[in-house]
From TrEMBL:
Gene3D superfamilies: Winged helix-like DNA-binding domain superfamily/Winged helix DNA-binding domain. It comes from the Bacteria. The keyword DNA-binding applies. GO terms for molecular function: DNA binding; DNA-binding transcription factor activity. Keywords: DNA-binding. This is Rrf2 family protein. InterPro entries: Tscrpt_reg_Rrf2, WH-like_DNA-bd_sf, WH_DNA-bd_sf. One of its GO terms (cellular component) is cytosol. The keyword Disulfide bond does not apply.
Amino acid sequence: MRISARADYAVRAALQLAASGDDEPLKAEAIADAQDIPHKFLESILNDMRRGGLVLSQRGGNGGYRLARPADSISIADVIRVVDGPLVSVRGVRPPELSYSGPAESLLPLWIALRSNVREILDGVSLADVASARLPAGVSALTETPDAWVNP
C-alpha cells in the first residue's frame, strides 16, 4: 500500500484542525505553515474535504476551516477515502471486481485480506487518537515488532 502525498497532507491538515479544537476556524495559510504543506495544494485538498463532509469553511476576516464533526468520530480512513478514493485497489480496481485464474487464483483472497487489515487499522484510528498521541493498543502493538521499523 502506498500513501500518496495528497492523503498524507490531508491527514496532517485534519490533525491540525483536530488539535485546534472548536475555538476558531484555522486559515489554510496557518495549516500549511504549521504542517509544511504547499498552500495551493492544501487549498485543493481542503475543498475535497469540504465536499466530502469532513470540514466546514467559513468566509470573512474570522474565516477558515474547522472539522465538521468531532475528531473522535472521523477516522484516518475517512480522510484518505475523501481525497484518494478506496484504501486498497489493484491497478485502480477494487479487489472484489477482480478475477484471476490458474496459479494466480489465490491472489484475490490475498488482496481481500490486505484490504481487510488496512481497513481494520485505518478505520479503527480516529483523528482524536492521533492528535492526542493515544493510538489504540492493537495498532501500538504492531509497531513493537522488531521488523516494523526496518525496510527489507
